[in-house]
Amino acid sequence: MLQEQFARLDQASKEALADLPTAQQKALGALLIAGDAYGRPWLDAGGISAALQAAGVALGTRQVGPALSRAGDMVATRSRGGATEYRIMTAGRRVVEPALSRTALSVVYVEAGKPRTARQQLAALLTPLVGDVRISDPYYGIRSLDSLALITSATRVRFLTARTNEKQADLARAITDFRREHPNVELRAAATPSTMHDRYIVAADTLIIVGHGLKDIGGKESFVIRLDAEVAQDLLSELRASFDAKWATATPI
To answer: Which domain holds residue 7?
Structure first.
């Protein structure tokens, strides 16, 4: 029985499902696991809800339908026995697979011209980050704040940047409002902008390399690469040291 199989998922998989930031992504995650691991690619809202709750993830049947009705090409649907059944499609996999993957390295393809899907993919990567998170991104803007807001589990977030092409007055207002809701996030401008080249995110046990800046993700074709500490420990240490040296001389924004 599918509920029993979800109840026996390893704890890491259960936590990964629980950490998915939206009802839609939790439902997509359940569809992915049900299809790939247990050969049950089609589930109705009740089946999705029951599977998730068996894994310790609270999502009611009445939440699943509305969430997946907005999923577009991320799911296929069919009618069976008077109920709507759902199956995850490639676009849906791109959104949730990085967060559910247990591999030490994963590569996420970000398709050009799909900023909403890109944001969902980014949320799946950023929401689980914990501890002290360091972010290096040469260019910033108001949409950078939207990406930073996705990091909901970290104790501290430091965003080091250099340049913007947006109006300072508009940016200043947006940053002031952002700080009220996210006091654990700090923003600084590097003392020497020419030293800011790479875009990366360093967390306690994860390195994320971003092909395009957080404010522009989804505008152009790019890739996001996630590396666990087990394959990137030396690189993580080097990046932390480099970041902290630049942070010490940077100016608060």
So the answer is: 2-92
